[in-house]
Amino acid sequence: KSGGNLFKRTTSALAMGAIGAVVIFAGGWPWALAMAVFNGAACVEFFTMVCEMNKELPYPPPKWCIQLCTLACASLPILLHATGGKMTSIILATVFSFTAICAALIWNEESHFNEFTSSLFGLIYCGFLPTFWVKLRGMSGVPLDVPGSLLHLWPAWLGGPGIWSLGLVATITIV
Question: N or C: which end of the chain has fewer CB within 10 A?
């Protein structure tokens, strides 16, 4: 049975790695959309953990608040890419999202400090910070395709030498 589990895990890891490599190389909208899915999944995982911590965090955010945070986190990479990498857009979107969530928490129920802090941490940790991957992948400006380098030999059917940018190399290196 453990051999079957190892095979499933290895196969799924290779498939996810291949999909991840394709999306990283593609960059642009595919990368922004993949990061939006990642941010949303990270937010769901974070708030699931927060809701399970009854002793340490007795007042988790309500379900509607978690859904708003998840939506905000998932929209940040798309917003950043749509605005051409302007950081002002995601800073304003994060501040606006947290302000709206705070106002809704105060308006709708008896609020607890833990609801505010876990919502803010979720927005920053699962939305704002991972969105920088979109900005990193979009970096350019340093020509990497110089005659005589190994990148100059990159095959055309894989995008040709022009596919290599500083953002692609930095993203691959960090991953």
Answer: N
